[in-house]
């Protein structure tokens, strides 16, 4: 996808992260343009999930900074990241498992609410009107991801593949500017993977959401993304279009090994 | 087919959100309210009002208070009785020191003071979870009765810290008879249950359950954890405080700080475990069980030959059976009596078919 404006939506500058002296990420920098799908790939333990956690403030990097939409942040808190418009899904499903699908999607919209909790408890008219509006918005997401039949189901009882999709729905309900997906297709069969990549591509196309995703299935990554960043042992070893990355000798070495 | 829901569709979101979506359920509720407000005061006797119905209602309300905190927001607490004591003594002092203050206003103010105290003891919940949080609320349980006994100002310098009920009068109408005290209690309890029902189905209720189910995900989607937990403590304290005031004034008439000891906190915890965590109806079921079960047991014992079980033994037996029941519930039905009721209803809808 062409870069729509000169300034990227997200830029990481020399980010380093260590856990008690063990380096997880060293000096990583890359940019994500408005409206693109950017894939983070690399072997297990390369630091991909840690990097997502730095972007949305679950971990704070010891060095480096993050530019989001032109503003530089030394460190972010999860709540602050959510307010900036960064939403995410988790590698191990992190849904509110005893709530219905609809309630899960509605919680995703919590920052878009204005009514005080007391007006809601008393059931005042403006609270009821807001509840209707939020429900309508939630229903749009549910329809978009074809989740209508399970609207009132308790999510903990849904099959795994559907739960992954509900997590996408909850993140999308927040109307995020940047959506981080941590292995959205992990543990899925080919059919489910095809369905999920279709939804991800549609999210990007219809909602204009910028996406950063981690995925192991190289076939899926190459077909889906505009931009691929390759990590190995916490360092960046490749950054470019899928074709450029495919030809990068360092990437081939990391994935396939080299002859010594 | 005891239930027929054919043809009942929701065409607006508001209809879909109703507490009872089915016409039969709404009729049932109306019937129940008419029964409780009109038929019972007419048919009941003083024993039923004072020994069964009033404690049942107040314990349901106390269970609701704890259920909001523990069942919905997932924060364990053993300080329920302390917050009840705060509510009772605060209401007493508002009535005593501000003559002419309407009784219901005193109840609300007493509830607010209890909310404030609960909020203070909820402050550690940001840092600690689960069993460690119990210790913090246990501190409230020991500190509050001590402070109420130590500083006699709270009980207007009465010798043993005993306080007695103010005149139970609302809008010039006296509620001092057993039937009157029942009606006053019922009105307050029904109003507060309505409020709680709205609350747990609103955005705040969803935030509580989100924090309970998965707090990291809740933080990442922008739910403020600390505010959500503190509100749970405060609102739970408000409900418990009013329950405490009712316990002291419409049920017992006179009460001392030691009447709100750790045993009472455990009793309320058992109500919500037996009734159902995270259920509104469960509080009524748990409280009914708690009030009726000892009566049932002593009636059964009186059927046995004289002298086989004396009163002391009966009391111990009651504790043993209760303990066993708690264990059975936690293993077999952690969602309590409310879940059993739900299952029964689901079967009634499709009866005589099986699926």
UniProtKB/TrEMBL annotation, chain A:
CDD domains: ABC_Mj1267_LivG_branched. It holds the Pfam family ABC_tran. One of its GO terms (cellular component) is plasma membrane. Residues 10-258 form the ABC transporter domain. It comes from the Bacteria. Keywords: ATP-binding, Nucleotide-binding, Transport. The keyword Oxidoreductase does not apply. InterPro entries: AAA+_ATPase, ABC_AA/LPS_Transport, ABC_transporter-like_ATP-bd, BCA_ABC_TP_C, P-loop_NTPase. One of its GO terms (molecular function) is ATP binding. This is Amino acid/amide ABC transporter ATP-binding protein 1 (HAAT family).
UniProtKB/TrEMBL annotation, chain B:
It is found in: Cell inner membrane. The chain crosses the membrane at residues 27-43, 49-69, 76-94, 100-123, 130-148, 182-200, 230-249, 269-297. CDD domains: TM_PBP1_LivM_like (cd06581). Its main location: membrane. GO terms for cellular component: plasma membrane. It comes from the Bacteria. It is a multi-pass membrane protein. The keyword Transmembrane helix applies. One of its GO terms (molecular function) is branched-chain amino acid transmembrane transporter activity. It holds the Pfam family BPD_transp_2. Keywords: Cell membrane, Membrane, Transmembrane, Transmembrane helix. This is Amino acid/amide ABC transporter membrane protein 2, HAAT family (TC 3.A.1.4.-). The lineage of its organism: Bacteria, Pseudomonadati, Pseudomonadota, Gammaproteobacteria, Pseudomonadales.
